[in-house]
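Write out the bound-state structure for zinc ion.
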Amino acid sequence: MTDSSRAEFRIVGGHPALDLVNTVSPRIRGGAGQHDYLTTPAELLAWSRRIELIDLRDFSAVEGTWRPAPELAEKALRATLDIREATYDVLASRAGGAVVAPDGVKRSQGTAFERLMLRWSAAAARSMLIPAEDRTHGVADLVVGTSPAQLIPDRLVVAAVELVRTVEVRQLRACPIAEGGCGWLFLDRSRNGSRRWCAMEDCGTRVKIRKLGERRRATAVPS
Ligand SMILES: [Zn+2]
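---
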C-alpha cells in the first residue's frame, strides 16, 4: 500500500491533531527541505490507521470509496492538509519552546480559525446522532464521518477543534528548532513539565551528539 520505511516516523504528539501537525519535518512555516509524510491518499490512509483514527472497518470503507474515485481521495487529502496547516497556525504561537515564531503565524491566525471552523461545520453536517440504549451515560452517540470519502478529514477536524477548545496550554510544547529540534508539537504530560524534545531518542540524542562533537573540536589540540 505504501512505502513502509517512509511511513515509520515517530508518533509523539499525544493527540491525533498534533500527530497530524507532525507529518511534516522539520515543522517550520515556509521552510525549505521539509519532508512531507502525507503526499498521497495511500499514505494518508495508512497513517490514519497507524494512529488509530480509523479502525479496520473504516479502513476498508474509505479504501473501497477512494479506489474507484481517485478525485474523491485527492479531495480528502487536500482537505486534510488544509486542516493540518490551519491547526498548526492556530497552535504554534502558543506552544512553549517555540523560540522561533513561524513567520506570518500571527497574521494568518484569524483565517486559520475561520478555515478550521468551515471544515468543522462541513464535518458536522456529515455527522449523525445515533440513539444508544441501555446506557447509564448519554442516550446517543455522535458518529463523525458518515461519508467514507471524507471520513478521515472529518474526524481530524473534529479532533483539532476539540484540542483547540480544551488543550491545557502549559502542556503544549514545540520541539525547539532554535536548539536543533524539529519543531513538532506535543503535549508534555510529565509531572514537572520537563519534556523538551519530541523524543529523547530522536532530537534529544541528535542534539546531544552534535554538541559533544562541537565541544571536542573546540578543545582539540591541532597536531
Ligand atoms: Zn524533535
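---
Residues 1-7 have pLDDT under 50 and may be disordered.
Residues 70-92 form the longest helix (23 residues).
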